[in-house]
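Rotation project, supervised by the postdoc (A.L.). Task for the rotation student: set up a whole-complex structure prediction and record inputs and outputs verbatim in this book. Inputs entered:
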Amino acid sequence: MYEEPILEVRNLQKQFGTGCIECRQKETRKLVKNFCKSCGTLYACQDISFDLYPGEVLGIVGESGSGKSTMMQCLYFDSEVSSGEAYIHTPDLVGKNIFEMSAQQKRFIRNHVYGMVYQNPVQGLKMNFSSVGNIAEKLIAAGNKNVGQMEATSKKLLENVHIPLHRMKEEPRNFSGGMQQRVQIAKALSNNPPILFLDEVTTGLDLSVQANVLDLIKVIQRDLGISMIVVSHDLAVIRMLADRTIVLLNGKIIEEGLTDQVLEDPQHEYTQQLVYSLL
Amino acid sequence: MAILEIVDFGKRFTIHHLGKTMPAIQNINLSLEAGEFIGIVGKSGSGKSTILKSIYRTYLPDEGKIMYDSERFGEIDLAQISERQMLYLRKYEIGYVSQFLSVMPRTTCRQLVTNALLEMGESEAVARGEAEKALAHFELDPKLWDSYPNTFSGGEKLRLNIAMATVKKPRLLLLDEPTASLDQQSKIKVREIIEKLKKQGTTLVGIFHDIEFMDGLCDKVYDMQTRQLTITQEVVSHES
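Outputs recorded:
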């Protein structure tokens, strides 16, 4: 079975600091966790490579500071990589390393290929715009011009994420955390992205709201066939959503496999500790 | 050719905090033909589930081969295929039923079975129809169809579990102690379900705690202690 991944990431590196003679060579560098003691350089992502396939949900787990969010920010161009390559296999982007593209091309990818849901809705939403306005903003960025059509699309999206019609014109800052998260999901989906990034989307939500959001994500994946990267430190969330899972520690991939295999037959010492800690 | 053939199979667990590697099972050899039902017996801890979980790739196999005759890929070694291939097989060819139900929260019983089919690409209408048929077939009270399985009894959860796995009509179904902790009445229902599946031509590998339960059901019995595969011929002729 040959399948072409939709997103191919190779040797993604992200460091904070210039590095020194002690830590520049990745084969021989000696770090305390992900930190070089002699020069203070922090290696947030080291040599991360993986493939994301069409329609699949890929889980990323790891403790705080393991590089999960940094990796997502690099892929979404919120933060620049130190080195590495990533390829998106859509007809107009194939064969080009997206990290080396111009700012304009990166914007095109963000507006047309990517959707992002941040852990903190403040990052993903304009809190003083109406909910409909937030979605319209993304639609305009994706090249829409017809106001009537945009309003109709926004309404439909908000309806899909169960935001009551009479509150659509309201600003998200008046909403509860769960509602804000759902507006963010609606916004992220508005340009029909083939790739969706979800960064700790259920963290901080109560169980009942979490169940709503999880269900919504599952329905979206099934009905729209969107490929997703789900970052979470909650193994239960990963178990429910992800087909395959990657475990990060100190910026490196230490284990990857089918989600149930990673959770039931963990190979790496750290993954074993993580699984033993499960409630 | 056999649909499943396990050759010199072994599995070890490395437990890092103890600094130990523990062999779970070694030298497992067994094979089964399409449409057969093989029962695995042995005391707890003898590695029965390890075999099933290794077939399903919940455990990473260490030694030997697990040859499977796939409809899509032909003859392949389940111990070697890619994760994506395994995901494909789980979706379309191999089902797994454990004694525990682990499902999306706040999803109704009806929706869970429907989802299993939607994930295979069935249309909403077909999926819904088939799901209702399956729920009725497994004798889940229609009153329960729109409630959440968290509050179901053990037997109901299990029947839902089997419904979710079998509605996809897998070619190979793995049953991991589906009768553990069930009362006699529920056990008989599960037995009837397994008989129906067998008649439909499903190949089954099952683990059961109580040997009596399997009387007259299995074509072959594999004993973990003796490592022997016995053909229960009397039973077969009696059945036919």
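Student's summary: The domain at 34-61+86-239 of chain B is CATH 3.40.50.300 (Rossmann fold).
Supervisor addendum: The CA atoms of residues 130 and 167 of chain B lie 7 Å apart.
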